[in-house]
Each structure stands twice: as C-alpha cells, then as structure tokens.
Amino acid sequence: MSSLQSLREKLQAASVEYQKTQLDLSNAVEARQKLDTQLAENELVKKEFALLKPENTVYKQVGPVLVKQDQAEAKSTVDTRLEFIRGEIKRIETQLKDIEAEAEKKKSEIVEIQTAIQQHNQPST
After folding, report:
1. Per-domain residue ranges of the chain
2. What does the record list as coiled-coil region(s) (predicted)?
3. Which of these, 92, 62, 97, lies nearest to 77 by C-alpha position?
C-alpha cells in the first residue's frame, strides 16, 4: 500500500504545481491584455499628434495641473513609450509560451500518475 500512497502524494504535489502554473498563466494573460490596452491608447495619441499644426499647444497632466509641453518632446515621449510597450509585449509573449509548455508538461505528469494509480487499483488476475 506504500507505493499507492506515494503515487497519491505525487499526484497531490503535481496538482498543486499545475494549479500554480495555471495562476501564472492567468496573470501573464492579464498583463498582456493591459499592455494591449496601453498600446492602443498610445497609438491613438500618436495619430492625434500627427494631426497637430506647429502652432498648436500641447499640455501634459502633472497631478491635477496641465503643464505646457513642447510638441517634439511630447511626440518623442509617446514614441519611446510605444517602443517600451512593444518590447514588454514580446517579453510577455515569450513568458506565455514558456508557461503554456510547463502547464502541458504538468498535465501529462498528472495523467501518468493517475494511470499508475488506476493500474495499481485494478485487481490482479
């Protein structure tokens, strides 16, 4: 009965690890969605900046106050932010692939342990 107990303990540990992996996956997906939103917002700002004339004034919100900002500086800030967001999206995409691969590995491990438990529980003939 000792090996059955050992298999059950392995199954419990693998299940806990799988649940943790699923949580990590969920967090990574949420982070990816936030980045998508930020990317869309900043691309919209960049499009609006393209419509500006040199004489238009640009303001930046600092706390509750609007502060006049140089147009070129504002455009540069948005471009830098877009570059950063795209880099973060690539990083998260790689992380998602790694987590998905780990989840599949854990899932296979759980199936193997469950199969071993079922075989152990079958009466010998």
Report:
1. 2-121
2. 4-48, 82-116
3. 62
